[in-house]
Write a structure and sequence with these properties.
This is Peptide chain release factor I. By secondary structure, the protein is α+β, with helices and mostly antiparallel strands. It has a single domain, classed as Double Stranded RNA Binding Domain (2-Layer Sandwich), CATH 3.30.160. It contains 3 helices and 5 strands. A 3-stranded antiparallel sheet has the order 3-4-5, with helices on one face. The chain has a two-stranded antiparallel ribbon with strand order 1-2. α1 crosses α2.
């Protein structure tokens, strides 16, 4: 079990990893070793995620989300397979942690009497400035 937050833990079996050849640093070694990691996590079939977290996660995933509701994270920045694997997992966990935070609901407020007064005073001042720009006989 991978502990994401105090209330959310994901089972290792829910993650699907595949290793492919990476582009980037490594010289000739890159052509011989599959060091890039593709980490797949099926949001819709995951029993570990509460429904509201899953919905927020789908919105956060953006282009990493497939039509089937699977997040695909590709990590290939590191030269070793192990470090790419750790990086991909950490990126997934960060996404889930971000989705686990409930957005605060906005409470509508009314402007105070003083702020209304300030707004009206500034409008009067601006109007008088613009009125002063007109030609003298334009009444």
């Amino acid at each position: 079990m991978i502990q994401v937050t105090p209330s959310i833990a994901i089972d290792e079996s829910e993650l699907e990893e595949s290793f492919v050849r990476a582009s980037g640093p490594g010289g000739q070694h890159v052509n011989k070793v599959s060091s890039a990691v593709q980490l797949k996590f099926d949001i819709r079939r995951s029993p570990s995620l509460p429904n509201d977290v899953a919905v927020r996660l789908m919105k956060l995933a953006g282009s990493r989300l497939t039509q089937d509701g699977v997040i695909v994270i590709v990590a290939q920045a590191q030269r070793s397979q192990k470090r790419n694997r750790e990086e991909a997992r950490e990126r997934l966990l960060e996404l889930i942690r971000a989705a686990a935070v409930r957005p605060q609901t906005r409470r509508p407020t009314k402007p105070t009497k003083a702020s209304k007064e300030r707004r009206l005073v500034s409008k009067d001042k601006r109007a008088s400035i613009k009125a002063g720009r007109s030609k003298p006989g334009a009444d």
